[in-house]
Amino acid sequence: MEMMKANVYDRPGHCEITEVPVPETAPHQVLIKVMSCGICKGADVALAGGGFLAEFPLLNGHEFAGYVCKVGSDVKTFKVGDRVTADNTVLCDDCYYCRKDEPLYCENFYSLGCNGPGGFAEYVVVNADKVFPISDNLSFNEAIFAEPTACAVHSMDRVQVQFGDDVLVYGCGPTGIILIQLLMHSNANRVVVCGPSQDKLDILKKYGCKETILMDRNDPGVHEAKLREIAPKGFDVLVDTTANVDVMESMIKFGKMGAKFMMFAMPHAGAKWAIDPEYWYLHEIQLIPTWAQTHCFGRALEYLESGKVQVKDLVTHEMPLDDYDKGIALAAKGGPGTLKVILHPNVEE
């Protein structure tokens, strides 16, 4: 039996790099040699603690790219050596929501790297219809951003920015920076970003964002006064990318009447958010949570391949798979100087 190296959680909070069997490749599947796999601060950190969709033993990692090294007998669309990434979602196509054409709510939702074996391993097996080719112009490090970009595309589908909308975004982590670029390509009149790290705001400026405000953690009144000055009537769309309930609560007052409030980041399990329902009612504020994606990978890759979404500056740390513990700790801590941490289960020969 052929073996491979993989990161495996046997229980919440405990993982190790160990040897496991290379997965079998069914007739409809493709075996991928993983070259790059990104750590998702939201999902991977939650999964490590037993949250989100975690099922143990857990082999996580849902943002991956690499080479096709084996194809199933029924697969005609790929060959050994192709450079690819993959949509990690697997849907049943038969439950109430799938038959209702709402696949994101699939009652048997299966996600590689969440409740199925993922990319923090030397190899991962994927259904061929979920595999996407990437050009030689897109590096594996860039290609792993197809998954977070797909999540951002789904969010854009949900929020439906209207022509002339003024948009306010709080926070600018790696996936937030991707979403902000999509907002910049939307019908919005202006996109204003308020974030706590100048280095991340500088990346946004480099990518063309014209209005950024440094968040003052010690005295919110400072940045809030600037927001009032530049948008006295408020904003049509409010986007939280921080998952911090205190931040979300502080944003509401910047919404116009009839504003949309989009929760783009996953709050911690059990977090409590104090809201004034009368205020929301009288202002007709729409709450729009968004998470994950299905069927958005094609569009995501078009944005990445065309350069409309840029991600090179988002990779701040790279390390071998053996350093997984170091990588997940870096991602969990975050802060200035840390955006995307990428692990390399294999290296170019």
TrEMBL record:
Keyword Signal applies: no
Enoyl reductase (ER) domain location: 10-343
SMART domains: PKS_ER
Stated family: Belongs to the zinc-containing alcohol dehydrogenase family.
Cofactor(s) needed by this chain: Zn(2+)
Protein's recorded name: Chlorophyll synthesis pathway protein BchC
One GO MF term: oxidoreductase activity
Gene3D superfamilies reported in the protein's UniProt record: Medium-chain alcohol dehydrogenases, catalytic domain (3.90.180.10), NAD(P)-binding Rossmann-like Domain (3.40.50.720)
Keywords: Metal-binding, Oxidoreductase, Zinc
Pfam families: ADH_N (PF08240), ADH_zinc_N (PF00107)
